Amino acid sequence: MLIYYQIFVDDTLHTYICTVIYITLIFMNALETFKQLPHKTIERLSQYRRALLICIENGKDHIYSHEIAKIQHITPVQVRRDLMLIGYSGTLRKGYNIQKLIDLIAEIIDSDQGINVAIVGMGNLGRALINYFTGKRHKLSIVAGFDNNAEKIGVKVNDVQCYNINKAADIIKSQNIEIAIITVPAAQANSAANLVIKAGIKGILNYSPTPIDVPDDVYLEEYDMITTLEKVAFYVKMQNDGNAKKIKQKGSGVM
Hints:
This protein is 51% helix and 15% strand.
């Protein structure tokens, strides 16, 4: 599912290749080309945009690939490769025009009409996601929440109303909701996903601690916070074990 490229070019060759790609895109269906972008590239483009928006706020108008790489903790080669894939090039003297790059990323990632999102499960995580995300992206709007807890139904969180999960089909259709974020307990995750899929949801972000099954025409991303935390803990453990070994060797006089 992940596609990796091993392309190494210097800045001059990079500029030339980007120019060729850009001219080629003019003579073909650019949308079809962008559909073929690797999933990881799409993720990084979103991350680049967040970083570039901060640069704009700080009064910066141009940026080099090595500066983006430093912010994102990746290599300049990776940045140049991603921008080559979307047909964008900078100049050797000034680098990339930040505003133009932001606009191009928006053209690729964002929908012209905007997309409405619903939270399924209005517990602590669901409410936190609403509070965090509201106002972050004008083309993505969380417009509804769903739950089966009577105490939560009818309550608004940051102007987002919680509806009875039994009314999900009607609300999803009436508010043209296309993405659902699943934040329910593991035991309810698949049934919640099935319910919103039947109502017409086209994409799901699953935060529940269990995998869910979706049809081929529904895009699924799953984020397991426990697994991610355990991964971080593993590398901390490895670092601690290495430091402990060094201390032991130093104490015993072994070099």
